[in-house]
Write a structure and sequence with these properties.
The protein has 381 residues and is of the alpha+beta class. It contains 11 helices and 13 strands. Bound molecules: adenosine-5'-diphosphate and magnesium ion.
Length: 381
């Protein structure tokens, strides 16, 4: 059933419009965003669509086509951020943050559907928030810039949904450009589209969705984030972004305990890898960045310790079958890995990952190519 029919069946009238926002993969630069560092995500060709219609009152009704997410209704006058349970915290979070910032937010009926796998580390949560943010921005005539919407949707995830993410996911979803990655400086929030040229080089990025649980709320993510912030305080710097690779082995190693030092080493070397990836894309093209991706995975596995058996197996199997590079993508503890492959090798890599998972007794992984795609936009329907 298409989204217009779904909307009309549920709410009795046609929507005013439909807005789409993509999920993302992060090419490189993991757990750097909340350390004010660099990241290089791209928006993927899977998206969440929100059909919406304004109401004359302050009631908001949200419904999702996805199984397991029941419709929710609430009043904008009464809802409290931090008191909303379940999936509705994402769309309602966006509305409540806008309201808190003084914007006039109307009541709305919203129906969402998505082909971004939920909870797979491809940022279905940001896709959801960003599609709703764009809808209300247009419908209420707020005229907020995409950059402003990055901050609003990030706050919605942080303060209402309680997911302490950095601005990476929202930036990719809102600012994505076809066949380009978004180079993001998470200190200044400056974002620049960086052409990838994957097609021209005969390359493809495969998502290896492990189907293993990832749960940011579970504390693993928050613990790493706290650890980084504490280390920055001990080092007397504003954020780990401020530590250069040359300072790592000097002062940092002396004053930090070994656990904190490993966290810091990941962040500092990961920032350097992002900048090197940018330089390599420019000088050698996308076929040359594979080893940087693989090094990023090793650092996340060994130093930051956010990988898991499934992610490690996916990366190993992909590399064994000829991937140029592979790494976990997203926060970790499950979710998805990506592999950079020559388009010819994609079937063999997919097969190798699937076979390895079967041999290990893991769930059947989902392996599919993704293309760097446009960010959030209004859809003609
Ligand atoms: P990820 O962003 O990696 O997919 P998260 O745990 O951050 O994983 O976000 C997943 C949550 O976002 C879901 O549990 C649900 O609350 C919400 N969500 C995402 N997409 C949808 C959707 N299409 N319908 C309803 N809820 C969704
Ligand atoms: Mg998410």
């Amino acid at each position: 059933m298409d989204i217009l029919t779904r909307f009309t069946e549920r709410f009795g009238e046609r929507p005013d419009g439909v807005w789409a926002a993509p999920g993302r993969v992060n090419l490189i630069g993991e757990h750097t965003d909340y350390n004010e560092g660099f990241a290089l995500p791209f928006a993927i060709d899977r998206q969440t669509r929100a059909a919406a219609r304004t109401r004359a009152d302050s009631i908001v009704r949200v419904a999702s086509a996805a199984a397991g997410f029941a419709p929710v209704e609430f009043s904008l006058d009464e809802a409290q951020p931090g008191r909303i349970e379940g999936w509705a915290a994402y769309p309602l979070g966006v509305l409540l943050i806008l309201k808190r910032l003084g914007h006039a937010v109307p009541g709305l009926d919203i129906m969402v559907e998505s082909d971004v796998p939920v909870g797979a580390g491809l940022s279905s949560s940001a896709a959801l928030c960003c599609s709703v943010a764009l809808a209300v921005n247009d419908l209420a005539g707020l005229e907020l810039t995409l950059e402003a919407l990055v901050e609003i949707t990030r706050q919605a995830e942080n303060h209402v949904a309680g997911a302490p993410t950095g601005p990476l996911d929202q930036s990719a979803s809102l600012l994505g450009v076809p066949d380009a990655a978004v180079l993001l400086d998470c200190r200044t929030l400056a974002a620049r589209a960086l052409p990838l040229g994957l097609d021209a080089a005969g390359l493809s990025v495969l998502v290896l969705d492990t189907r293993a649980e990832h749960a940011h709320h579970d504390g693993g993510y928050a613990a790493r984030r706290d650890g980084c912030e504490q280390a920055a305080r001990v080092l007397g710097i504003g954020a780990l972004r401020d530590l250069g690779t040359e300072e790592l082995t000097g002062r940092a190693q002396k004053v930090l305990d070994p656990g904190a030092y490993r966290l810091v080493r990941h962040v500092v070397t990961e920032n350097a890898r992002v900048l090197e990836t940018v330089a390599m894309l420019d000088s050698g093209g996308p076929a040359t960045i594979g080893p940087l991706l693989t090094a990023s995975h090793a650092s996340l596995r060994d130093d930051f310790q956010v990988s898991c058996a499934e992610l490690d197996a996916a990366v190993e199997a992909a590399l064994g079958a000829g991937a140029l590079g592979a790494r976990m993508t997203g926060g970790g503890f499950g979710g998805s890995a990506i592999a950079l492959v020559s388009a010819d090798a994609a079937p063999a890599v997919a097969e190798a990952v699937t076979a390895r998972f079967a041999a290990e007794g893991f769930a059947v992984p989902a392996v599919f190519p993704v293309r760097a795609s446009a960010g959030a936009h209004r859809v003609d329907v």
